[in-house]
Amino acid sequence: MTDLRIALYQPDIPGNTGTILRLAACLGLGVDIIEPAGFDISDRNLKRAGMDYLSAVSLTRHVNWQKFDEWRRTSRRRLVLATTKSPEPYTRFSYRPDDILLFGRESAGVPEHVHEAVEGRILIPMVEGQRSINLAMSAAMIAGEAMRQTAWQP
Ligand SMILES: C[S@@+](CC[C@H](N)C(=O)[O-])C[C@H]1O[C@@H](n2cnc3c(N)ncnc32)[C@H](O)[C@@H]1O
């Protein structure tokens, strides 16, 4: 497998997940949802944001972090975590075409053990004093840079 993927760690807000699923459907990116999510996949706000694009997404749901991590290690993929706690700007990181871009939950990011399990940690630099960028916005920015560097073709 060589597809670039977006993974969402226990997402809380269905509209963000729907927006990311629509982005992935349009760009041909795979998506992994690491459960438990804070909503059901049939949530009407997810459907409103994802619209009819949802049926076109290559989506895999993983029952928990452990199962997801086992799967991605077996498939020898790197995990690249987007986090406000990294000093490394996302534009300086060298992406591979089969990387999994991992994003934390809206309420709390990812726990420490997930932070430690990944191969890369990247930051979208922000103005001093600002806390974080919307999950779907940060996914679009980082996926865009990874696609640019790896000459991704939908
Ligand atoms: C709304 S933010 C989470 C904020 C959360 N309170 C925290 O402390 O991490 C949701 C996710 O978007 C991504 N994100 C948001 N802003 C980011 C930034 N400036 N750099 C890298 N990732 C970012 C991260 O993956 C983050 O876990």
Automatic annotation (TrEMBL):
All residue ranges annotated as the tRNA/rRNA methyltransferase SpoU type domain in the record: 4-142
Which reaction equation describes what this protein catalyses? 5-carboxymethylaminomethyluridine(34) in tRNA(Leu) + S-adenosyl-L-methionine = 5-carboxymethylaminomethyl-2'-O-methyluridine(34) in tRNA(Leu) + S-adenosyl-L-homocysteine + H(+); cytidine(34) in tRNA + S-adenosyl-L-methionine = 2'-O-methylcytidine(34) in tRNA + S-adenosyl-L-homocysteine + H(+)
Compartments reported by the entry: Cytoplasm
Q: What is its EC number?
A: 2.1.1.207
Gene Ontology cellular component annotations, sorted alphabetically: cytoplasm
- Its signal peptide is none
According to its UniProt entry, the function of this protein is described as: Methylates the ribose at the nucleotide 34 wobble position in the two leucyl isoacceptors tRNA(Leu)(CmAA) and tRNA(Leu)(cmnm5UmAA). Catalyzes the methyl transfer from S-adenosyl-L-methionine to the 2'-OH of the wobble nucleotide.
Self-association or partners: how does it assemble? Homodimer.
Task: Indicate what this protein is called per its UniProt record.
Answer: tRNA (cytidine(34)-2'-O)-methyltransferase
Question: From what organism does this protein derive?
Answer: Aliirhizobium smilacinae
Lineage of source species: Bacteria, Pseudomonadati, Pseudomonadota, Alphaproteobacteria, Hyphomicrobiales
